[in-house]
Amino acid sequence: MATQLSISGSTNAIVHMIAMAGRADIRLTLDDYDAMSTKVPVLADVRPSGKFLMEDFYDAGGLPGLLSRLRDVLHLSALTVNGMTLGEQIRSAEVIDDTVIRTRENPLWPTGGTCVLRGNLAPSGCVIKTVAAEARLQKHVGPALVFDNYAELKKVINDPELDVTEDTVLVLRSAGPIGAPGFPEWGMLPIPDKLLKRGIRDMVRISDARMSGTSYGTCVLHVSPESHVGGPLALVENGDLIELDVANRSLMLLVDAETMTRRRENWVPPTATWTRGYHRIFADHVTQAHEGCDFDFLHGHSSNREPDIF
Amino acid sequence: MSDTIEGLDKRDPSKLRSSRWFAPDDLRSFGHRSRLKGMGIDDADYQGKPIVALLNTWSDLNTCHSHFKQRVDEIKRGVLQAGGFPVEVPVMSLGEMLMKPTTMLYRNLLAMEAEEVIRCHPVDSVVLMGGCDKTVPALIMGAISADIPSIFFPAGPMLKARWKDQTLGSGTDAWKYWAERCAGNLCESDWKGVENCIARSAGTCMTMGTASTMACIAEAPWVDVAQCGQHSRRRRGT
């Protein structure tokens, strides 16, 4: 986790780390991640958060160099693959170029480069890569413009008549693990052409999707539970006010509880479209984003389950 | 190999997992040994040595792993030099660029395949050859669940791309220049120029995308071969 945070790594890695830990019977949670996020600064100045590329990162000292600046947050006694401890591995590591791998005194971003948000719109959490978002949007209230799925978004997003401004909060649903299906990288929703032509390059965007690790912008991702299973994202309507407050780790739909109850009573769960094959297994067993999206029957490992040989 | 590392116990060859397949004096083991002989592999080539499976996610449709066909031979040589016996085992490839609707739909399928391919075969340890985003967690998840020693070998990122006087980073600069094109600030031939230049060599996105992030995460506990996650193209001189 410290590594991922210090390189301002892909938000996808949060899902993968939870899933990998689950195989080792370690219960890693978004709270664990957020707690680490308050301790670890972003030191790698690499795109999309920073300026340089992986080749520059290697030349500047690479991962050993970077880890040598994070000794206080690492388990230095942890055994590594060649029998040495992590502390021994990075004992002689050094950083060659402080502009690519920053010092602790001059980080690319102090702490909280990637944050976990909660609120009535994401009861089980969601994530945002703060370091790759425009500063002016980190505290923002705006009216929702909701797309029920990506096909609908693509059809209307560049319509010149679309009721959208730079303050609008773009909301995409049916993009989560089951709803899309497969949890695609649709979370960096496109900015309408008419706003691009006016020089707008970032807006608040919220979805139950992932986004590419190479993407950037004020994109709230992995909203859990996803809309397909009845998460609150399913109940948002055009014009609802949404409040994003990264400093307070909050994502709120400013709609009263009574209205939300009424909307929930009227909500019709989507019908299952996949009835056979691997897709059926996926839809029946994939866990939600905050749980790592492994299949529910794959947690843990199978020691001593050797095949019979007769 | 564990027996080459000072301070670690040298394993008794008869306790190797693979010896269950090859050591007994019975009809099944006769079959296992005789069929290997049919491939030109004699008892002395592998018995008493750890059998190391190289799980290779190469595919013509995985643009990030196009060098794995050659790279696997170099890993085989390394395993032989260290006293093991290497076997290449292909597993499902998850290439981010061409697989739809998303590779994430198949991460768990590769994880299941990796786990079961390890479990059902006579292998004592594995080298996980991955790189493109989902192949990294999938292979590691499978290896953890199979619970045998594993090491990760990453594809490594592409070389820095250049177009005119700009350096280009995959993904990031594609989004950036697409926005400029939609805004009317980039002509079609410049957009084509970016397309022609942004992927310069074999390997994964050379930004800190998911592939580089997962390679760093794998390298942090040295699951990985140190630092290949950041430079594996160097050795090709490309």
Gist?
The complex is a heterodimer of chains A (310) and B (238). Chain A is α/β, with parallel strands linked by helices and 310 residues long.
Tell me how many strands of chain A there are.
8
Task: Count the E strands of chain B.
Answer: 6
Structural class by sheet pairing and helices of chain B: alpha/beta
Shape descriptor of chain A: globular
- The proportion of residues in beta strands of chain B is 5-15%
What is the number of helices of chain A? 10
- The tally of helices of chain B reads 10
Q: Can you tell me the residue ranges of chain B where pLDDT is under 50 for at least 5 consecutive residues?
A: 1-5, 232-238
Major beta-sheet overview of chain B: 4 strands, parallel
* Oligomer designation: heterodimer
* Strand arrangement in the largest pleated sheet of chain A: 1-2-6-5-4-3-7-8
**Whole-number average pLDDT of chain B?**
90
End-to-end Cα distance of chain A, whole Å, is 45 Å
Structural class of chain A: alpha/beta
List keywords for this structure.
heterodimer, A: 310 residues, alpha/beta, 8-stranded mixed sheet, 13% strand, globular, B: 238 residues, two-stranded antiparallel sheet, 10 helices, disordered C terminus
